[in-house]
Amino acid sequence: MQSYGVEAGQGGRLGAIPDAAGTNFALFSAHAEKVELCLFDEAGAHEVARLTLPARSGDIWHGHVQGVAAGQRYGYRVYGPYDPRKGHRFNPHKLLIDPYARVLDRTFVLDDRHFAYRPGDPDGDLSFDMRDSAEVTPKGIVTGEPSIDDTPKPQTPWRDTILYELHLRGFTRRRNDTPAQSRGTLAGLASRPAVAHLRELGITAVELMPINPIGDEPHLKKLGLRNYWGYNPINFFAIEPRYAAADASVEFRILVETLHEEGIELILDVVFNHTAEGDAFGPTLSLRGIDNASYYGLMPEDPRRYLNYTGVGNTLNVEHPSVRRLILDALHFWARLGVDGFRFDLASALARTGHQDCRPETGLIAGIAADPVLSRLKLIAEPWDASPDGYRLGGFPAPWREWNDRFRDSARRFWRGDRGQVAGFASRFAGSSDIMAGRGPLASINFVTAHDGFTLRDLVSYAQKHNWANGERNADGVSENYSRNWGVEGPTTDRAILALRNRHRRNLIATLLLSQGVPMILSGDELGHSQNGNNNAYCQDSETSWIAWRDLDPDDQAFLRFVQSVIELRRSHPEFRRTAFFSGQQSADGRKDIIWLHASGREMSEGDWRDQNLSAFGCMFGEGERVLCLFNAGGAAESFVLPSARGSWRCVLDTGSADGSSEASMASGAAGAVEAHSFVLLKETSA
Fold it and tell me: Does the pTM of the predicted model rise above 0.70?
């Protein structure tokens, strides 16, 4: 082995920080007895040095190694008790990934040597495995300070924001107009055709599904599948290696700059609630072997077991100062690289106090909201976790915004034709004031589809999930999707069924884009992407998930144009982008700011709202020239008596037509028919 000069160094900054003379290494562990730094050759195959970190400042182990420069591969071995009954799982035979590593040298591939106990041993996780894991563990790579992004940001106001959730790999994996080596990578997303699609569609912010290094679950390895979505991280600073065509750091910087130049913001989906180390029977990759008892929430009565608010085996102990520091340091790292915001997966798990109570108004969630840098970015919570008390929609403090799954369900159920949905649908359309009270409609991130669930095409094509390809006998995924196939399960050539499905695609996307709140579109929905009825494609790194960039058939071409036109309609009409809730009181022009209308033309009564058979209603709102929305979720045409207007009513959108367009004009008080399963939008005009 090679010899290196080692000095005490500094413990102020964690991670591997190079300087002119070498590199300073610092690692937190409150319960370790010794920490060894392992250096590897350029291929990461052979250990060339093993150095004991010579100094400890509090719970920070550190040392400065002379001659170690950027590009050096490294990992740690941490010594301490292997005593799962007391929460300790140290095993120096397992090479550990630095939690602060900014680059990993390879994609993680699960191996039996990653387990610190002997799988199959009668003592279970109490046994101790002495096989060395260095050969199969990704190594950190020492890197210099990243370039700080100082290019102007779009800083799009929330009221003007249109989110677009996409998977980095799936978005361009099948783009034939992108160089083959760039497809499915950061470079692919930054390519001219990909960015042009976003710009032409009218997107203002990309919400990128997790890009941190991914750990495949053991059961997926047995099935020959991979974790595709990426909600199973092994590190919070690095980028999954397979997401780069060449240099991930360079490509990420170019992506940020390219999107910003086009006025598009970049929001990262981050997973700080758990790691890929799983439950007590999972692999030892990083935090578990560094200091299991500090990093993870453990059962107070049995520290051998993990608190599992995430549903995947473990939950990070965000009350611990060093765990909280890790998360905040990671957020600041990405913010310095130019990221415009973050979406926090299972955010309720980050609001746990005492490992049990869920209190979003305190702790880490409140700390992020008060942070002088992070509070200026877009902060989006998935306001639930996997526990019964974790559903906290409406409970996150400003400036947080929240995914609103009740909007999704109301929109789906109303347009599916379920009984008694009018009142709930109206509340969601108007901004969910019953949920977001005191914060305004822009606190609600509205969506009808997301990565988890059916795509828009499948939502109107399948009544049941079809997840057989996931290898779990179709038992995974949500069973109730509030979907409907409209006559045939899955693909069909029946033109009447296809026409009805296309109409409902228009209904759902128009509802999403014209409701109060912030809309989020699932990538590929505008193109008619289908996952063949799979509503849990987390393990489908295949054409099931990859968007098919192809010549669209006439129906999908028309739908793409429709989505573009409704986005433009929202952009050009401030009535759909309110910052305050409707009050039902008179506005500056002497008219109520919103009026809810029965099809007969009168205002809705309390009895109407409770009418379980009502499927058609309308609303009129806006200052100056008003807009009139007419909804008919029933199976027959409905005659609406139009309210009085200062002039006439001009139809600007009708989902009952093949392309959603209409130029018809109608007089005040006239009766107009709204076709079955249709949404009609009219605008008041004095002309």
Answer: yes
Q: Give the H or E element holding residue 619.
A: strand 616-621
- Of the pLDDT bands very low, low, confident and very high (cuts 50, 70, 90), residue 687 is low
Res 624: pLDDT: 82
Give the residues across from 140 on adjacent strands: 74, 104
CB 657 within 8 A of CB 683: no
Calpha distance 567→570 (Å, rounded)? 5
Share of the chain above pLDDT 70, in %: 99
Query: Which of 493, 508, 492, 376 is CA-nearest to residue 455?
Result: 508
Q: What is the pLDDT of residue 19?
A: 96
- In order of 127, 593, 669, the CA distances from 648 in angstroms are 80, 19, 10
Q: How many CB atoms lie within 10 A of CB 278?
A: 20
Cα angle: 401, vertex 529, 475; to 5 degrees = 80
Picking from 67, 13, 4, 12, the residue whose alpha carbon sits closest to that of residue 36 is: 4
Render pLDDT for 173-231 as a digit per residue (tens, 0 to 9).
Answer: 999 999 999 999 999 999 999 999 999 999 999 999 999 999 999 999 999 999 999 99
Which of 345, 409, 526, 684 does the annotation list as catalytic? Answer: 345
Which residue(s) pair with 530 in the sheet? none
Could you give the domains of the chain? 6-141 (2.60.40.10), 159-265+343-358+378-575 (3.20.20.80), 582-685 (2.60.40.1180)
Contact 318, 272 (CB under 8 A): yes
Contact residues for 186 (Cβ-Cβ < 8 A; gap 6+): 168, 211, 239, 243, 244, 245, 248, 251, 252, 254, 255
Q: Which residues pair with 296 in a beta bridge?
A: 316
CA distances from 189 to 155, 179, 193, 261 (A): 21, 11, 9, 14
* Two structure tokens written together for 18: 């190079």
Token pair in block for residue 67: 């001659």
Token match 């990704």: residue? 138
**Which of these, 132, 365, 334, lies nearest to 252 by C-alpha position?**
334
Active-site residue (options: 129, 165, 217, 382): 382
The two beta strands, 627-632 and 616-621, are antiparallel
The tens digit of pLDDT for each residue in 618-630 reads 999 998 889 999 9
Is residue 382 part of the annotated active site? The answer reads: yes
Residue 145 catalytic?
no
**Alpha-carbon span 95 to 150, nearest angstrom:** 37
Bond preceding residue 399 cis, omega within 30 of 0? yes
